[in-house]
Design goal:
The structure holds two protein chains of two kinds. By secondary structure, chain A is of the alpha/beta class. Chain A contains 22 helices and 18 strands. In chain B, helix 3 packs across helix 6 and helix 4 packs across helix 6. The two termini of chain B are 17 Å apart. Classes of the chains: A alpha/beta, B alpha+beta.
């Protein structure tokens, strides 16, 4: 298939000419899929189970596919479009200022009362008079059969797609780097900065503190705003992380309450404040509109901006625009949208009909003026319901519009201000990772020793013994009367699969606190996990071994590539606590379960499995070139400080972290734990780890998680 | 015409939570507003426990709204409003502009301030979904809206029709019983009848307000006890070109309303909810008790 240039008269749009055969197109699409997954790694939410604290992650976000062949938009057409879109954004802003202010549109009969009759018109916004109504504006355009550009939708409530656009560009810049240069495509490097600056302009404060209000990982546009938040360096917070007190907005962080000056909201008008009349849901922040009214916080976009998208207003919108901006706007709009006429080939559907495209452009507005981002995101008309959404990057070649003058961005240090919920996520993620590692190593160890002595491992006694160990470590009820080693191995595989799922669920919600490399490893883990589930191979050796390598990478990146903060200290504390806990689980079951029946080879096997699970088998063999002795095993895995995997090492590190956190209670716990361990009192040791876990939650994470509406009594 | 009368109103709302909450926000629409029929001599709201903060503002309809915040652990919340008012009677409303003419005027003829203060009450609102119920409303109230009859007469007919044909049943509805259920079952509480009347009026293009307030508990001798006493009460207002907003009470079949104490008005119950809010804390059960006492003091 030749991807030729197809041009619609006067539209300025064409397709990049990639000289390719059909296999090449297919190869390009697959490469695009891979690179997109890698670039957006960690932001995608997979099908995940219940989180460690009992909450359920939402349904899998539906990934979109990036068509590897971008659309080209010539510079002069873009310049014209940009001017028209800026004008439209200004006019829309003026319409908003009027319907929530002087309301001349109503007084003079341009808008009948029905135009503002639905829930999109927020009464609480009347008289609010924000600095500006629209900080981010997006418009969807198509080219009609006359070659004219037509606006088919305005997005003013919480326009989405900027993050996806940057993600698409990052992917294509790796797929087709030479083409970008050849076509003199306008770069997007400055976009996150410009958006950040515009957001800062939502309030008149020196060095404002900015936060993104997210609807949570379950939302379909989570990838978009999570990626954007990371690109801008903005803290991603959920409603529960924020609280309004004394008419100010605060972020609940480990360090206490931190004041917030600008809220970049990625939830709709009706969801911003549960205290608002006719509000919807509990993802917002109760009382935030009070803080807005007191002008201590700026919202971007302003509350009420979504009314432009209202179906009730649609029939009257053009009249309203003409009223506030009498000189006719260059761009025509038609909400019922002509079908897009320009047809573009799609690499992923070779041989099928080319499709029309709808293009989304973005305008960012701040004190220094408006910028229309020199790029777009094209959405191809769908051919059916089962195919994933296909997007094309839009390359703008050499626009002449002058870039916004650079201004130094004030620096705000957010190193310490991690929302409590995020810190909890990092803590549980680390605990889950640690336990998963042990489960994985246990599975590997059982597989290897079964291979070496299948006869012994087929005996009922050994199966029962292993089942007990698996049950103890995976906290599941052991299978009754397992008749072969298949059973505990299967149980282990499933437990491992579940534990990785928990870890990924926690990680997904705190993506912006992990490094980019971390994201890639997590994405790989998630994909492998999905594949294993699909092929019913969760207990396969290769699957588990592969996952263990990823887990080692995660642990390494945690140590080497994560900024040290109270959240890191707590996360690391959690990892060591889990290490001690799981060691007690294993040791208690194996060592105490060793029979005195004189079954020496059986004893050796079980001790070897124990050591291997705790990553200490090689060390043991190197040190004691003889058979494995229970007493020496305990000395190595419990007491030996030079063994980084021992309980003693874990407790020592826990102590250091607790000291850095100035948390004396935990230091006392560590001392008690060491004592119990030395006394080989596993029961007491486990009880202590359980209590310490509760203490962590109480001391650091006891911020309440739910907000609920007060009951109403109605009127009789 | 009866002389002016003085009243004292006490409205107490109490919440108990099975677990301590760490933060609570309450929005109260409890302070009566001055109207041609009433002077507010005094009004105050007190809360228990002591609030961490208090804020007041006028909403889009001019009602006084108070917002309280609690940021200390608490397992109960009490909001008490106490007001003293003086009510006087006004001349009976009389406007024989045909109701259809009022509808036409409201639809396209309002300009200036009235486009906002009157026009915004002709359209559906969250608790009053006119479009969905239009057919049922037409069936029920066809006789009321005889072409050409005066607007006040139409309101009176609507009021007496609901009073006659619908049964007051305090056990029937919940806080937000859908209109369809009220129409089907022919029963409800005053909130339902007020929404019903407002819906019937707006369905015909007429501007209608939902009014929240109280009525006196002691009936005049020989007359039945008024329904709605000892609870927050709700009735309606229809707009007339000559007489302005005319109140009527479909629950008690009253037009005019003489003994009604107005607190606030809006599009529907959602705009004037006496006490609403949000609590933040562990999952917990809430118990709610409300008591209202209206007493004549002269």
């Amino acid at each position: 298939m030749e991807v030729a240039e197809t041009e619609v008269p006067a539209s300025g749009l064409s397709v990049l000419n990639i000289d390719s055969q059909s296999e090449n197109a297919e190869r390009l699409q697959l490469a695009s899929d891979r690179l997109l997954a890698s670039a957006g790694a960690g932001h995608r939410v997979h099908d995940l189970p219940i989180r460690a604290d009992g909450r359920r992650v939402g349904p899998a976000s539906h990934p979109w596919r990036l068509d590897p062949v971008p659309l080209l938009l010539n510079g002069s057409t873009f310049d014209w479009l940009a001017a028209a879109l800026e004008e439209r954004a200004d006019a829309l802003d003026a319409v908003l200022a009027d319907v929530y202010g002087a309301r001349r549109l109503l007084r003079e009969g341009v808008l009948p009362p029905t135009a503002l009759a639905d829930s999109a018109y927020r009464l609480a916004a009347v008289g609010s008079n924000p600095k500006r109504w629209l900080t981010v504006y997006a418009a969807d355009l198509v080219v009609d059969r006359h070659g004219r550009w037509v606006v088919v939708a305005d997005h003013t409530d919480q326009p989405s797609g900027l993050g996806s656009m940057l993600l698409a560009r990052e992917t294509l810049s790796r797929l087709l780097p030479d083409e970008l240069t050849r076509q003199s495509v306008a770069p997007l490097d400055e976009v996150p900065d410009r958006l950040r600056r515009a957001l800062s302009d939502a309030i008149d404060v020196e060095s404002p503190r900015l936060v993104t209000l997210s609807g949570g990982v379950g939302r379909s546009d989570f990838v978009d705003h999570s990626y954007l938040a990371v690109a801008m360096g903005l803290t991603l917070a959920e409603g529960a992380d924020l609280v309004v007190r004394r008419r100010r907005l605060w972020l609940r962080s480990l360090d206490g309450l931190e004041p917030i000056d600008v809220l970049y909201r990625r939830v709709g008008d009706r969801q911003v404040d549960p205290l608002d009349v006719d509000a919807e849901g509990v993802v917002g922040v109760p009382g935030v509109l009070q803080a807005v009214r007191a002008r201590t916080v700026g919202l971007a976009n302003a509350h009420g901006a979504g009314v432009i998208e209202s179906p009730a207003l649609a029939p009257f919108l053009e009249d309203a625009l003409s009223f506030v901006e009498p000189t006719r706007l260059a761009l025509v709009s038609d909400p019922h949208g002509p079908p897009p006429s320009a047809l573009f080939p799609v690499a992923s559907t070779i041989g099928s009909m080319p499709r029309g495209a709808m293009l989304r452009f973005f305008v960012v507005r701040g004190d220094a003026g408006s910028t229309v981002i020199p790029a777009g995101l094209a959405r191809l008309a769908s051919t059916g319901t089962t195919e994933a959404l296909v997007l094309k990057d839009v390359w703008v070649s050499s626009p002449t519009a002058a870039p916004m003058p650079s201004r130094r961005l004030p620096q705000v240090d957010f190193a310490r201000s991690v929302p409590t919920r995020a810190a909890a996520g990092l803590y549980w993620m680390n605990r889950a990772a640690e336990r998963a590692e042990t489960l994985g190593r246990l599975a590997g160890a059982i597989h290897r020793t079964v291979d070496s002595d299948p006869l012994w491992w087929s005996e009922a006694g050994s199966v029962a013994a292993m089942s007990r160990v698996v049950a103890a470590v995976s906290h599941t009820a052991g299978a009754d009367q397992p008749n072969s080693m298949e059973s505990p191995i299967n149980a282990l595989g499933h437990a491992f699969h579940a534990q990785i799922g928990s870890m990924l669920a926690e990680a997904a919600a705190v993506r912006d606190y992990l490094s980019l490399s971390n994201g890639r490893v997590l994405a790989h883990l998630a994909d492998a996990r999905d594949a294993a589930a699909r092929t019913a191979g969760v207990s396969d050796r290769e699957v588990i071994d592969g996952a263990l390598i990823d887990l080692a990478a995660v642990a390494g990146l945690w140590r080497e590539s994560t900024i040290r903060s109270p959240a890191w200290l707590l996360g690391d504390f959690g990892r060591r606590l889990e290490r001690a806990t799981v060691t007690f689980d294993l040791v208690g079951t194996v060592v105490d379960g060793l029979s005195s029946s004189g079954d020496e080879s059986g004893e050796q096997h079980q001790l070897a499995v124990l050591l291997a699970s705790l990553e200490s088998l090689v060390t043991y063999r190197r040190r004691h070139r003889s058979e494995i002795d229970p007493g020496r095993v305990l000395a190595l895995v419990v007491d030996d400080r030079t063994n980084p995997r021992s309980v003693a090492s874990a407790l020592e590190t826990m102590n250091r972290r607790a000291a850095e956190l100035e948390w004396t209670e935990a230091m006392e716990f560590s001392a008690d734990l060491m004592q119990a361990a030395r006394a080989r009192d596993w029961h007491e040791a486990r009880a202590l780890t359980h209590r310490l876990g509760l203490a962590v939650t109480e001391r650091w994470f006891s911020a309440p998680s739910t907000s609920a509406p007060l009951r109403s009594s109605g009127q009789g | 015409m009866t002389p002016s009368r003085r009243y004292r109103v006490l409205h107490r709302t109490e919440f108990h939570y099975s677990q301590a909450m760490t933060d609570g926000y309450t929005v109260a629409c409890l302070v009566p507003r001055p109207t041609p029929r009433q002077d507010v001599l005094s009004s105050s709201i007190r809360v228990e426990p002591e609030a961490s903060e208090l804020d007041s503002h006028l909403d889009a309809f001019g009602n006084l709204v108070s917002v309280f915040g609690w940021h200390e652990p608490h397992d109960h919340l009490v909001v008490v409003s106490e007001s003293e008012l003086e009510l006087r009677s006004l001349a009976a409303p009389s406007d024989d502009t045909p109701w259809d003419a009022v509808a036409d005027l409201s639809h396209t003829g309002l300009r200036g301030e009235e486009a906002i203060t009157v026009g915004s009450f002709t359209v559906p609102s969250p608790f009053v979904d006119v479009e969905q119920h239009s057919a049922a409303l037409r069936r029920r109230f066809d006789q009321v809206f005889e072409p050409g009859i005066g607007i006040v007469d139409a309101a009176r007919r609507l009021c007496t029709t609901i009073f006659r044909d619908f049964e007051f049943d305090p056990h029937f509805s919940e806080v937000s019983t859908p209109l369809a259920e009220v129409l089907d079952a022919g029963r409800g509480v005053c909130q339902d009848f007020a929404h019903l009347a407002v819906a019937a009026l707006r369905d015909r293009g007429l501007p209608a307000r939902y009014v929240s307030g109280y009525i006196e508990t002691l009936p005049p001798p020989g007359e039945p006890k008024l329904v709605g006493a000892d609870a927050s009460h709700a009735w309606c207002s229809v707009w007339t070109p000559a007489s302005g907003w005319v109140d009527f009470d479909p629950t008690n079949g009253h037009l005019p309303v003489d003994d009604h104490i107005t607190v606030a008005w809006g599009r529907d119950y959602g705009d004037v909810t006496p006490v609403r809010g949000v609590v933040i804390g562990p999952a917990a059960r809430q118990t709610l008790t409300v008591s209202v006492d209206v007493a004549r003091t002269d």
